[in-house]
TrEMBL record:
<keyword id="KW-0997">Cell inner membrane</keyword>
<feature type="transmembrane region" description="Helical">
    <location>
        <begin position="30"/>
        <end position="55"/>
    </location>
</feature>
<feature type="transmembrane region" description="Helical">
    <location>
        <begin position="311"/>
        <end position="336"/>
    </location>
</feature>
<feature type="transmembrane region" description="Helical">
    <location>
        <begin position="148"/>
        <end position="169"/>
    </location>
</feature>
<keyword id="KW-1133">Transmembrane helix</keyword>
<feature type="transmembrane region" description="Helical">
    <location>
        <begin position="67"/>
        <end position="93"/>
    </location>
</feature>
<keyword id="KW-0472">Membrane</keyword>
<feature type="transmembrane region" description="Helical">
    <location>
        <begin position="113"/>
        <end position="136"/>
    </location>
</feature>
<keyword id="KW-0812">Transmembrane</keyword>
<protein>
    <submittedName>
        <fullName>Ribose transport system permease protein</fullName>
    </submittedName>
</protein>
<feature type="transmembrane region" description="Helical">
    <location>
        <begin position="189"/>
        <end position="210"/>
    </location>
</feature>
<keyword id="KW-1003">Cell membrane</keyword>
<feature type="transmembrane region" description="Helical">
    <location>
        <begin position="240"/>
        <end position="262"/>
    </location>
</feature>
<feature type="transmembrane region" description="Helical">
    <location>
        <begin position="277"/>
        <end position="304"/>
    </location>
</feature>
<keyword id="KW-0813">Transport</keyword>
<dbReference type="Pfam" id="PF02653">
    <property type="entry name" value="BPD_transp_2"/>
</dbReference>
<dbReference type="InterPro" id="IPR001851">
    <property type="entry name" value="ABC_transp_permease"/>
</dbReference>
Amino acid sequence: MTSTVAEKPTEDDTPRRRPLRLRLASANTLWISLVLLALIAVFAAINPGAVLTLFNLQTTLIETSVLLVLAVGMTFVIITSGIDLSVGSVLVFSGITSALVMNAMSPGGDSTGAGWGVITVGLLVALVSGAAWGLLNGILVAKAKIPPLIVTLGSFGAALGAGELLTGGSDVRTVPDALATTLGSGTSFGVVPNLVILAAVVTAVGAWLLGTTKFGRYTYAVGSNEVAARRTGIAVTRHLVLVYLLTGVLAGLAGFMSLAYFRTTTLTSHSTDNLNAIAGVVLGGTSLFGGVGSIIGTVVGVFIPAVLQKGFVIIGVNVYWQPIAVAIVLVAAVWFDQARRRARNSR
């Protein structure tokens, strides 16, 4: 009888893990974080007395909170290799329905003095309104197999038009004082705006959902290879509907937050929120081709346009340069993503 002794793997046979410095160097989140820090450093060097202040930090965080909530939902959609152009209009529609219901429940049709019971109903209406549009988008994308660009472009116009029909094209300007002073302009711990805390909680939950749960793993799988995901038993159609539903719910929450902060429905102020959310997500390293992305990267990406806008105002640069600068950074981020994919596929 002959015995066979297994040969020990040689050094060339054993898989090698890349050094930490190489893994960090290839991480999109690291590079985009360095870009953000560089922007802050440049603006601080030009005008340190105006940039590095508590007031500027608070206002930047507040102005970014609503967009960040939209971008969290957009991250899930783009990871599935989809897109949602309707979030800005859904935000407006949700704010309108919430404000109208709160007014209808208040004496004289004026919700200014309404209590937390009415405000809670208004929140639920905003969430349900956003969920309805998200569910519609998801069904048309996942079940009817209509491209997400076409579906959400249609709902972009439909949601805004529906909101204008409900209000006759005029903003609803009566908002409960308790909502505006608590969520809209209130602070906790003396300095932290409540709006920022809510956005941080949403972001943390989104990061947990994407990074540690089955829902997050399925999201990456669907975006990486939808056919392979189906073959492994993932209910792709159901999952895509849930992803668009989640995005709609977050757009509804963002509408309620906007209503609390501005004390009005701001019909014409959110026309570019969809593009800003997409830009923040892509700048944060989420691939438009699907399968790659993170909530942490989205947080960093969302703050780049905010810092550019605030910095340009502080140092006296024409604010109209801001979208040009964001466009350059965005195109560079997409080019980097494509170059990385080509390099990986060529190996």
